[in-house]
Amino acid sequence: MGRIGLDVGSTTLKVVCVDGAGEVLYHEYLRHNADVAGTLRAVFGRMAGEFAGVRVRMAVTGSAGMGICERSGLPFVQEVVAACRVVEQKYPEAASLVDIGGEDAKMIFFAPGRTPDIRMNGSCAGGTGAFIDQMAVLLGVDVGELAGLADRAMRLHPIASRCGVFSKTDVQNLLARGAKREDIAASIFHAVSVQVLTTLSRGYYLKPKVVLSGGPFFYIEPLRRAFAEAAGLDESAFVLPDCANAIPAWGAALSVGEEQPARTFSELEELLERSNAKIGERKEGLLPPLFESKEAYGAWRQSKEKYRLPTAALRTAGEGPCYLGIDSGSTTTKLVLLNARREIVFRLYCRNAGDPLGAVTGAFEQLMRACQEVDVSLNIGGSCVTGYGEDLVRKAFGLHMGMVETLAHYAGASYFAPDVSFILDIGGQDMKAAFIDNGTISRLEINEACSSGCGSFIETFATGLGQPVEEFASAACSARMPSDLGTRCTVFMNSRVKQSLREGASRDDISAGLGYSVVRNCLHKVLKIKDFSVLGERVMVQGGTMRNPAVCRAFEIETGRDVIITDAPELMGAFGAALIARRESRVHRWASRPLAEVARVAPHSCRDGLCRGCHNQCTVTTFRFENGERYYAGNKCERIFSNAGEGRKVGANMSEWKYIETFAPIDRIDKEGVVLNEGEVGQIRASTSVLADGEGRKFAAERGSKAGVIGIPRVLGMYEHYPFWSTLFEGCGFGVELSAESSMRLGEMGAHTVMSDNICFPAKLAHGHVLDLAKRGVDRIFLPFVVHEEGGLDGADNSFNCPVVSGYSEVLRSTLGRAVERRIPLDAPSISFRDVELLERQCWRYVYGLRGEMAIPSRRVFRSVFSRAVARQNGWAGKLKEKNLAVAKGAIDDGRLLIMLASRPYHTDPLIQQKVGQIISEFGVDVVTEDLVRDTVLEKGLSESIHQWAYTNRIVAAARWAADAGDNVHYVQITSFGCGPDAYVVDEAMEVLQRAGKTATVL
Is pLDDT at 648 greater than 80 in this prediction? Predict the structure, then answer.
């Protein structure tokens, strides 16, 4: 008599049969494509032939298994519990289990006499099998071929694995740079491994033996190797069971008790058939049908046919100059050719397979063949390229111009509706929305950190349910009871899909529900629209995703608008680019060129090199074309390698100036006031080895063997108070060691100790900085609990720090204990900068508490040092304001464009900021920071907010300054994903700018 475990997941079904000793006799793993009942019948049929006449007991696990148990009466085992059962019974020597599934990941730690410690991924599906599938599709291979590519890799590239949006951008960038596909494949597996470790280990280290579970580990050997390397273990530390792809099913089989009745396979099949009959009509979680009937759907399709792209035969193009538009997107390439009458004579839509130049070359070859077939010769009077590959394609083919996507899409929309008020473009992995006022784009929104609601998102679901995306989209239009699947991340929506499948929803209902989800995510999560009147009455939808009639119709139902959509919404960017080329050719009077000349890509060479302009040390790929053009890829900035050409003027960048000034050495501050030229910026590194003058230096010389070194991490509030603390401690005779400048390597060093995946990136980075100090061998690490900042702005309600800035030292203290080999104290005294007298007492209490371990100064010496530290802090703040005011005045007086770059102090970190300030200044634009409004009055005005956070008070004041300044002053705000206070501060800043007729750019 055997025992069977059945694991029914959202996309796969696993079954394991064990004998009395728990050894596996049979196991199977297959996709059910939403047909669980049919798949089970097939499996039981095969098992009945394998075990003829055998009676078995069965338990069920898995996300879709609970519904089966509720209807059939079979026992249910939670899948994590089932996995633990396997380890405890079959691998008692194991210290942990790591499982990567299709859409989730788990890490379980075992210790004798203790309950297993279970960790699971939460709000993001990054680092799972679904992520690997998406990356394989992006490279145009299946997962098996992806593994084969990784086996031949020579190097790794940094790839973000948290979300498909970021990872696809990284992969596309690498492909555009000519990176080897083998290296990209290996980098994908490395990224998955790092993601799993950093999000699930949370302060623990994996120790042998480690049991690996899940389909990705079972089928992909390069993933196992990458995970072992990322975990710092050799492959002998891991155990891969023969049925690692079905561990929960095995655990369910081991969990079957003797009290369960034994049944034949035919009896089990009959039981499950009866349970399926119990699925009643769903009454909850339903949405209105997209169409009431087939007739209604047909009438709707007919109503949309009035907006058709103008077309003509290709032979008519020989009558005059033609105009070329190319949209080189992240996953697809679109080409449109217009004749002199603005009619499309040729159009093409194709996947670029990660090779934008190859895709455009292939498109030109098809165009040339089409011309030969009708015996016509074409001359190109104007050409324009837009999209992701704009610069590369323009230089490679010598095209006349490039144009940002937004304006290209607007040009296409205005052809059909000159009075268009709103444009929504949903592509494969991005979403753009433009609000138009009086023919001008007044507001632009794009999706930030989540790809749900984009084309690849729907394509992934269609693939998971075993249906081509075209059929999946059409099926939605006949759904009677669309499922309410929620919005936002794939993880949450997958949960709703599982629930719907469990309740008997059809694929039609799920497809229709996804149409609603795409639209709701766009309207409520990305655009945050509360009143649809802001869309206006003339709404146009564009992008390949809008070819899905369910998405288009759901948008109409949700907004109450009759939208404009053409017969080829995916071509609107290329069509707009062609219209722009036609318009600009008449302005610039470009000379026409034969198509054969335009279509010939300039021979080129690629060479990788290391940029040593700063600590990022980017790997820069240089494309050298025989037509004399050069294109640089991989550089995070254009200070050294620029695609803008020679002779460009660079504007002032006060964000970078502030970063350098904050961490400059004391002797340089005292003697030179920290006025750095551009050459020095890339060379100077923060150092605090020089002691302050006067009594502090005299005391330091006498400190002898009890001299101590205090480590200060370059994180969070230290970007506001490092001048004070470095002056204070060195004046007291202590050595001060500053952590290294931020880098991805430093971030990864501490990533596994981060306890919350949703904490902001600046906080996550703090773990690496503390570990860096620990490796340097400092005696103590100092990160105070700063409750209040200086009073700052008059009119503010308070000057609190946010809880993360003030209290994160406690988190670091609790999570890094095991990581720091020597027990180095992490000191976090309570500090308030709002009251100078209180601050002096608090600082003396801390310094006095170090007696016995370090030589400390007398109280008299301390008072003198403290006064100097306060003076330096005030001088630093005053100098920042003075310098910002001078830059702003110069730009405003001269009528030059000026950007207020508002952020928190730690956003000046080049890694956190991603050099936004430098990128803006390289356009010749001056950049000032929110330090310009230090010590000003915060007028509450129309605001209903309580202004109690010091940093955000400054941001709001900066927004009001930008709103009141001239038309040449604009506002850009940097925010970290997961920042709590910014949930309202961003909205308030946007409202302030809108009232002044300006827009706020939020990055």
Answer: no
If we measure between CA atoms, which residue out of 916, 880, 923 comes closest to residue 898? 923
Nearest to 714 by CA among 660, 766, 661: 766
Q: Which residues contact 667 (CB under 8 A, 6 or more apart)?
A: 690
The conformation of residue 932, written as its DSSP 8-state character, comes to: G
CB of 467 within 8 A of CB of 475?
yes
Structure tokens at 349: 């839509």
Tally of helices (H runs) and strands (E runs) in the chain: 36, 32
| Residue whose C-alpha is closest to residue 696's, from 872, 842, 947, 444 | 872
Closest CA to 159 of 571, 868, 744: 744
Instruction: Name 640's Cβ contacts closer than 8 Å, sequence gap at least 6.
Output: 611, 613
Strand pairing of 969-973 and 898-902? Answer: parallel
At a CB cut-off of 8 Å and minimum separation 6, what does 308 contact?
566, 567
CATH 3.40.50 region(s) of the chain? 880-1002
The CATH architecture that domain 422-563 belongs to is 2-Layer Sandwich (3.30)
* 994: DSSP letter: H
CB atoms within 10 A of CB 425: 28
In sequence order, which residues have a C-beta less than 8 Å from that of residue 944 and are 6 or more positions away? none
pLDDT value of position 224: 92
β 2-8/630-633 pair status:
unpaired
What is the torsional sign of CA 533, 536, 537, 541? negative
Superfamily of domain 1-80+246-280: 2-keto-3-deoxy-galactonokinase, substrate binding domain (3.30.420.300)
Position 375 pLDDT exceeds 50: yes
Whether the CB-CB separation of 354 and 294 falls below 8 Å is answered with: no
Q: Is the omega angle on the peptide bond into residue 395 within 30 degrees of 0, that is, cis?
A: no
Third-level CATH fold of 880-1002: Rossmann fold (3.40.50)
Residue 451 is encoded by which pair of tokens?
């790809």
Q: Helix, strand, or coil here: 688?
A: coil
Q: Nearest CA to 954 among 979, 977, 929? A: 929
- Which residue's structure tokens are 């030179």? 672
One-letter amino acid for residue 334 of the chain? K
Angstrom CA distances, 229 to 115, 206, 233, 236, 603, stand at: 28, 12, 6, 12, 40
Which of residues 451 and 576 earns the better pLDDT score? 576
DSSP symbol at 208: S
Over the stretch 776-822, which tens digit does the pLDDT of each residue have? 888 889 999 988 888 666 656 666 778 888 888 888 888 876 555 56
**CA–CA distance, 371 with 367 (Å, rounded to integer):** 6
Residue 353's pLDDT is what? 67
Pick the CATH number of 307-417+574-598 from 3.30.420.40, 3.40.190.170, 3.40.250.10, 3.40.50.20: 3.30.420.40
Q: Residue 506, Cα to own-chain centre: how many angstroms?
A: 32
Look at residue 310 in the predicted model and tell me its pLDDT.
92
Q: Cβ distance 49 to 34 under 8 Å?
A: no
Distance CA 591, CA 380 (A): 9
What does 707-724 look like in DSSP terms, one character per residue? --EEEE-S-TTHHHHHHH
User: Residue 224: which H helix or E strand, with range?
Assistant: helix 221-231
Q: Are 955 and 973 in contact (CB under 8 A)?
A: yes
The DSSP-derived string for 934-977 is: TT-B---TT--S---BHHHHHHHHHHHHHHHS-TTEEEEE---T
CA atoms within 13 A on the CB side of 296: 9
- Non-local CB neighbours of 318 within 8 Å, separated by 6+ positions: 376, 377, 378
Q: Indicate the angle between helix axes 221-231 and 143-151, nearest 10 degrees.
A: 60
The backbone region for 864, taken as left when phi is positive above 0, alpha when psi lies in -120 to 50, beta otherwise, is: alpha
pLDDT number for residue 680: 35
Query: Residue 424 and residue 444: Cα distance in Å, rounded?
Result: 10
Six-digit token string for 246:
């079905």
